[in-house]
Prior knowledge:
Strand order of the largest sheet: 1-4-5-8-9-10-11
Distance between the termini: 65 Å
Order of helices and strands: HEEEEEEEEEEEEE
Strand content: over 45%
Mean pLDDT: 78
Radius of gyration: 23 Å
Oligomer: single chain
Shape: globular
Amino acid sequence: MKIINYLVLALFIIGNLSCSKDDKEESFNIVGNWTLTEGIIEPSSIVLEMGGMNIPMDISGSFVNIDANNNLNFKENNTFSSYMGNISLEMTMAFMGTSQTETFDGSDFFGDGTWEIKGRELKIHNENGTTIKYYIDNLNDNSLEISSNVKDMMLEEGPNPVLE
């Protein structure tokens, strides 16, 4: 009889343990109009393959001269539109013992397209066929902080071979 009591007690404990797991996944609501205030390329290293040679390169950078009227509008129907105006990327690249800083001018690099969220992962699919995977680092009523790894940028043809 003791064995049956222990068996029933064990089944009761196992049943409670398996039912007590909380599988809530984080959810983020990014719907709204957001203004880009800063952008940073964290210092990192990449290896470029050029002519059969692997060339290590250190990169870092930040957005400068950001148009104050820029906006990125995430809509309820999982589409987005953007207006970035003029914006510059100041990037420092160091390779083969030489460091060089270049400024690249651009405009409206987000474009228009669709978006999707799963957990902390935000994928933006641009109308030009580029998909960029971002991670939501922080979200509150006033700010949305996202990060990305340039190597995660996908073109229509697949991964960007230059960044692999």
